[in-house]
């Protein structure tokens, strides 16, 4: 594509992330060669971020590099997988070295922390878009699915909900979000350790990318069950609770927390796990027979959310 396509790849993307002994051949040949350990299942996922759709085109490139990988790692976390290898399909309008250096820095730093190696990709010219594929490893047969919830299970979420959506709303209104909220939007932390600790413990798990209602809704439909959640138990910042508008924590999106279900008699294990991980884990409701999600206010009455979650194709059919 560019005169310097190979220079550009060599300069920014040839050695990003963790160095792993199971990478027999990384960036530079027609394929990467990887050697998965025997007895492990491979978890594979792809997410693409498009300028103007998923991020502001002028966002800090380092934060963007972080986020593009983080949203993919979040999918691995939701299955309980340990990150191993990634590839990057990068479409760029032009070669901007300052931008590329920042982007590679953000991506590379998170990749190193997560233990994932960038082993290949593709570089083309066009409207800015970033597609990442990640692969992770799981003990055979143990991957956490959306379909495993059982009636009576407790519904749990990690961290807190709605802060990324609040930051996005403020930026769209031309306001400056609090630094902590902005971090939630621009530098989500994939809950990889939690996902791995939920293997053999959670019955079902999903990462919350499109809002709690939408994503818990996937657990419900995949498991053939209904959910009842208590709004007062939702973990969210005080400024999200005050006006009785539950839209951001319920439907905001971009949280990248995990929502999982577990047998009620396992509840006592949550506080220790939360302390071990330094991550709040909250019980917000229960699975039951039926379909759909009921949201209860503190007085027991039913709350009707106005918006269910983010769906790219919702208005275009
Ligand atoms: P091919 O023509 O065989 O598809 P390419 O010329 O597209 O190979 O890429 C050359 C090498 O660089 C390959 O190993 C490919 O995986 C890697 N690569 C290309 N773009 C990227 C990128 N953005 N990040 C990481 N590796 C990349
Ligand atoms: Mg080739």
Description:
There is one protein chain. This protein has helices spanning 5-12, 61-79, 97-114, 163-172, 179-186, 192-197, 212-223, 238-241, 247-251, 269-277, and strands at residues 23-25, 33-34, 40-50, 82-92, 117-125, 129-139, 154-158, 204-208, 226-230, 257-262, 281-288, 292-296, 302-303. With 317 residues, the chain is an alpha+beta fold. The chain has 2 domains: 5-139, 60s Ribosomal Protein L30, Chain: A, CATH 3.30.1330.10; 146-303, Alpha-Beta Complex (Phosphoribosyl-aminoimidazole Synthetase, Chain A, domain 2). Helix 4 (163-172) packs across helix 5. The chain is globular and about 65 Å long. It starts with a helix and ends in a 14-residue tail after the last strand. The model has no long low-confidence stretch (mean pLDDT 93). The structure holds adenosine-5'-diphosphate and magnesium ion. Adenosine-5'-diphosphate binds next to strand 4 and strand 5.
